[in-house]
């Protein structure tokens, strides 16, 4: 019996590439996306295509859980950036149902998100510092971002 694999965000290049790589008799591919016209949905038979809520919708995880139960999914592969942290946070629920999740732990994903915020803040502040010559403001902004605060040091505290 083939393994059932559910791939999300099938409109993206990562999902398309993954789905092509997994095509075989040993894999029963399912595809889901928020866009009913996503290209990856057309790469599987109609009974294996699903439209789900966006990852910022409270119904998103419920949609995936329902699909995993209804279709007896062995492996869930989220490929949309915005889906990674929510799915990682719900990993234990999926795995208790018998669905493995191909994804880094939530702590690693959150670290990646934090690192991207630091890089973005550094780029923005570097550009501002070049224009204003305010290196101390740039350092304070970086400290705030690293501490998990997205606060402008020049704004008065509430």
Please characterize this protein's 3D structure.
With 158 residues, the chain is α/β, with parallel strands linked by helices. The chain has six helices and five strands; from the N terminus they run E-H-E-E-H-E-H-H-E-H-H. Helix 5 runs antiparallel to helix 6. The radius of gyration is 20 Å and the shape is globular.
Radius of gyration: 20 Å
The separation of the N and C termini measures 61 Å
User: How does the major sheet shape up?
Assistant: 5 strands, parallel
Taken from the alpha-carbon principal axes, the silhouette is globular
Strand order within the widest beta sheet: 3-2-1-4-5
* Number of helical stretches of at least 4 residues: 6
Q: Strand fraction band?
A: 5-15%
Tell me how many strands there are.
5
Classify the helix fraction into a percent range.
40-55%
Class inferred from helices and paired strands: alpha/beta
The residue-averaged pLDDT reads 79
SSE pattern: EHEEHEHHEHH
Q: List segments where confidence is low: pLDDT < 50 over at least 5 consecutive residues.
A: 131-135, 151-158
